[in-house]
Amino acid sequence: MRILAATESGEVGVPSEDWCAAATGLVVVLDGATARTETGCVHGVAWYARHLGACIVDLAGDRDVPLTGVLRAAITETAQAHLHTCDLTHPGTPSAGVGILRDTADHWEYLVLGDVSVAVAAAAGEKVISDERVGATAPDERAEANGYLIGSPEKQAALLRMKHGELAARNRVGGYWIAAADSAAADHAITGAVPKPGIKAMSVLTDGAVRAVEFGLLDWTQLFAVLHDKGPGELLRIVRQAEESDPLGVRWPRNKKSDDATAVYLPSSGL
């Protein structure tokens, strides 16, 4: 099985809160959610993403357990790992978006929760599975934050208000769902399966890499062409080049100049 991957922190010298791993018939990608507030956790978001990801990889080998069950058990196991040192009831407790691909005899199963996307290039075209619920929360606060320049005091204050709005909607009916301390969030993941015949390639990407599409730099057909011809590293380079050309977020309003970015690519030769 052939898998290509690239991951990069959004800020030099700051550990990435993305995490990825791949094994035969399995890809796991996590996108740790930027905290912005206190978390009640002494470890931090990057620690949470690493531990949750490792648990998912360990548990996903049992094909008799559905992906929602894998994620549910991984959230529980990770919570137990810092239950006695951290306040898991804190509203800002670390969380992460999750994307999983796992093969079966005839299909590739997928699970998406939060800011991770699964993309499939097939004979009939591209199928993209994204969770839009996070971006739909706190719309007024989000719009206000987008009106300020990156790095300005006004932007920072607006982002904090936006974060509080997001946290108020996190893991609630009518809000959005993400892996945190409550394993019940796994039951709200977007899941499905794609038949193996006809699949040309697949990719799992955090939202930092999906900026290539969100900025209008590439469509999904072009994104797969970049992955095929030059690999995931080139995709991240394209995103970083665009971000550097618009450091204050005038052309592309966003929360931060550069986000952690991860892209995992499975070409047809690896399926």
Automatic annotation (TrEMBL):
It comes from the Bacteria. This is Protein phosphatase 2C-like protein. It comes from Catellatospora citrea.
